[in-house]
Design a protein that fits this description.
Helix content is about 35%, strand content about 25%.
């Protein structure tokens, strides 16, 4: 049977990490987490559950980007396949029960990765408090993303923010090397966190979006939609604001 590791990045995810862990331990042969400076108990939870933890500074994340962190977890993974999740996600029961059979089916083929439907939930101020009520009552939308790939050198993460997976320098989602599978990832419960979203986390996101917008050297592999639409429509996209955000983050 082919082995599967679950990799992720964490930062102050204590509201979600136990739900994620209860799900992942049902099917993962290995779990590797790169933490970027959690202070809310996330790191302690991971270590208490004997999860392999790598640590990077927030400066590695801010200046080198998410793909840099993802590739660190990949380089420390020895399983046949790697599955990427966020801390506020979990997969449906069909996935948990069948993923190893799905991996067995693509062995000996040209398929290098699996694309999975991701359902994102939005908080409409309806005070939902648990996963089941959120899934049953909240507005959502579906997208498809490559989330599992063979652990081979030709596959790397690229992109400074909103990173994606590349096979021989080509976005793997656009190649014939991926396959869509009929399973579901439940995503984006972060809007329903019990604790207020950490101000530093918000600053990091805004800084990185503006940094990609203003710095062409960071734009390689990054989907321009994020900073051409999201930044222009929703943020003060001035260079001065970028410098202001940088000073706030580095002063902390």
């Amino acid at each position: 049977m082919k082995t599967l590791s679950v990799n992720l990045i964490s930062y102050n995810e204590i509201d979600f990490i136990s739900k994620w862990y209860d799900c992942v331990q049902q099917y993962a042969d290995d779990i590797i987490v790169c933490d970027t400076g959690s202070t809310d108990g996330t790191l302690e939870f991971l270590l208490d559950n004997k999860i392999k933890v790598l640590q990077c500074s927030q400066y590695d994340l801010l200046e080198k980007g998410f793909s840099y962190i993802r590739n660190i977890t990949k380089s420390n993974t020895n399983t046949d396949y790697i599955h990427y999740l966020d801390c506020d996600e979990y997969v449906d029961e069909y996935f948990r029960k069948n993923i190893h059979n799905i991996l067995k089916d693509i062995e000996g083929t040209d398929i290098q990765s699996l694309r999975i439907k991701t359902r994102t939930y939005k908080n409409n101020n309806n005070e939902q408090s648990d996963y089941n009520s959120i899934i049953s009552n909240c507005e959502s939308y579906d997208m498809n993303h490559v989330r599992i790939h063979k652990n081979i050198d030709q596959i790397k993460w690229g992109g400074y923010i909103h990173e994606e997976i590349f096979f021989n320098e080509q976005n793997i989602a656009t190649t014939k090397q991926h396959k869509q599978i009929d399973t579901l990832i439940h995503h984006h419960f972060t809007e329903f966190r019990k604790q207020k979203l950490n101000d530093t986390k918000i600053l990091k996101y805004e800084y990185m979006m503006l940094n990609a917008y203003h710095n062409k050297s960071l734009q390689k592999y990054t989907n321009k939609w994020w900073y051409e639409v999201h930044v222009k429509e929703r943020m003060d996209n001035s260079l001065q604001n970028l410098l202001t955000l940088r000073n706030k983050l580095y002063d902390n």
